[in-house]
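Researcher: Go.
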Amino acid sequence: MVASQAMRRIWLVAAFAMVTTMAVVQPAVCMALEIDPATVRNQLVLPAEPAGAITPTAAKEKLTKDPQPIVIAGRIGARGGMEPFLENKASFVLVEIPADDHAKKPGHDNDNCPFCKKRQANSPMTAVQFVGADGKVLPVDARKLFNVAKGSEVVVRGQGVFDPKLAIPVIQLTADGVFVRPAAK
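Model: Structure:
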């Protein structure tokens, strides 16, 4: 229950920050009364990984309260057992991809690894949203829309903001494209 409440707080902070900047950020996809997931997927899934992707930590240093174009590579996840997805919403949370090989081993659990926990403690999370023309998050579950799960590595392109005065270090990213990296074998 505590993890669920913490995740809601992260999303509320991110949502408030995004709403306050939404007038400047251009929506990714026109939204009709009925959304066709296949059409939306074709508009948002990128055929190749965009160049210039940086980590959430590097993005935190680059971004300000004013929206600016950015490409971020991360792993879908959250901290402390929180759920990285909002049900029936085209949104998810990204965390830093571990830089060393130990985290790539099958069955590795970042949430319970002391090395990963220490490294992740100071890195920001990235709240990613895909919005329609009305500025609202698309009402299609990101897991189904992009065929992703917790632990999937993605590269997301869009308009990002970061306010260092927020209580929780969260980058808000209104995305216009996503590339899902192939799963390691």
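Model: The first strand starts at residue 68 and ends at 76.
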